Amino acid sequence: MVLYSQIETKFMYQHTRYPQKDPVIVFRSTPSQRNATDKGRILLSIGESVASWKRTGDYEVEVTKSDEPHVPSDARYMYEILSKQGHLLTLVCRSLGTRLFKTWSAMTGNVAGELRYVKNVRSVNQTYFRTFGRVNAKKESANTVTLEGCARRRGASMADSIELDFRNLKQYSVFSGQIVAVEAINPVGDALYVKDIFAKAYAPSASAPKLESKINVIVAAGPFTPLNNIHYQPLWDLMEKIASDEPHVLILVGPFLEYTHPEVQDNLIKDTHQEFFEKILTRIMESTRKSTQVVLVASNRDAHHEPIFPTPQYAVFNKKLLQNYRNLRLMPDPCILDVAGLKIGVTSVDIIKHIGKEEISNVTGDRLGRLADHVLAQTCFYPVYPPSEDLNVDTDLWEKHAFFDQQPHVLILPSDMRCYCKVINECLTLNPERMYKHAYARLSVKPALGGKWSSSNISCEIVRV
């Protein structure tokens, strides 16, 4: 989903990531300079109050990948050609657009023949009809919004597009890449005068989890150390808490060694980036009890890893580390974890910020919730197109691995934006904020009663470590 020049530029830049054997940087535990009253402070919470976050009982769970397709560890990228890229984008548009049509028709009770459905977005008609396509929002052009169709005329190099006129809409929220269905008229062929817009193609919810007892899940997202040092003190503070509370699952979302960190840029790390990462990983595992499942979700922003999205799981060359710690789980980005039937969707990409940059809207209220809702409504971990300039998206991998057919029970969307924890369409979505800000999330999940599941079974807190 990016031009090869963009991928090649970042790939060439990757060669500057590999350090020389220069000054030594070591992990040090340094006394925290933060106010003592800030430690343990609850920033926000949702659900029932939890009396204690320490593990009780001996119930253990296994963490596996869900049945959704995930990026293989040996995935190849940079092999796509423009014609195939266009075909995949059209395929996705048609698939999601068709589902939007069916869902919208079922909701409005449209009788066959009462309202015309057309594939040609430039169809000229003075009576209302419905069509669908991909949004292109141009903020730099006075918030111009166009709709690109999902069908090409024979001999045309690209699909037709037409401007959307929202003057008759009281509320709307659109962004580049979003697949939408509209009800509109096109009197003279220059624009679609939109009467209504529909973009809620939610996937069916996953089945109720089969938990036998309450479980606790801790979630933290990188970067794990501030820009002014590479001591990782926030992470080690969290690991002390993990050793004490012994949660059932610990989810750590990369990056662990972000390529933009000054000490990476200036080649001040003695070890290779891979060696440095494995030292961090070793200390994490040494600080964790065997009964805690440790999940590492990869990031394309890691200096030692693949600069592509979707991103394969981390490679660990120290085989003894993998052999000694059977409770370690390496996951690609994006991924959907299966914890005894509890489905947890995770991505390391800041999709909330990326959608926010592209969004053109005329709506008031909860903006963070609205941006997160777009992810669920598009059934895609990264629905923005064209992608952000700092993200290299492989269209082939994206089409295969960035979508979900079932809506997870929990959706983790780490972001630089303010932390949140909200229930959207019966899915608990959260941003645990960044670990270098000393913030993390903790979830307490109760088993379903009588096979009936509700988002109220989950309690969530965003906490200062």
UniProtKB/TrEMBL annotation:
<dbReference type="InterPro" id="IPR016722">
    <property type="entry name" value="DNA_pol_alpha_bsu"/>
</dbReference>
<dbReference type="GO" id="GO:0003677">
    <property type="term" value="F:DNA binding"/>
</dbReference>
<dbReference type="InterPro" id="IPR007185">
    <property type="entry name" value="DNA_pol_a/d/e_bsu"/>
</dbReference>
<feature type="domain" description="DNA polymerase alpha subunit B OB">
    <location>
        <begin position="131"/>
        <end position="198"/>
    </location>
</feature>
<dbReference type="Pfam" id="PF04042">
    <property type="entry name" value="DNA_pol_E_B"/>
</dbReference>
<keyword id="KW-0539">Nucleus</keyword>
<comment type="similarity">
    <text>Belongs to the DNA polymerase alpha subunit B family.</text>
</comment>
<protein>
    <recommendedName>
        <fullName>DNA polymerase alpha subunit B</fullName>
    </recommendedName>
</protein>
<feature type="domain" description="DNA polymerase alpha/delta/epsilon subunit B">
    <location>
        <begin position="217"/>
        <end position="421"/>
    </location>
</feature>
<dbReference type="InterPro" id="IPR054300">
    <property type="entry name" value="OB_DPOA2"/>
</dbReference>
<dbReference type="Pfam" id="PF22062">
    <property type="entry name" value="OB_DPOA2"/>
</dbReference>
<dbReference type="GO" id="GO:0005658">
    <property type="term" value="C:alpha DNA polymerase:primase complex"/>
</dbReference>
<dbReference type="GO" id="GO:0006270">
    <property type="term" value="P:DNA replication initiation"/>
</dbReference>
<keyword id="KW-0235">DNA replication</keyword>
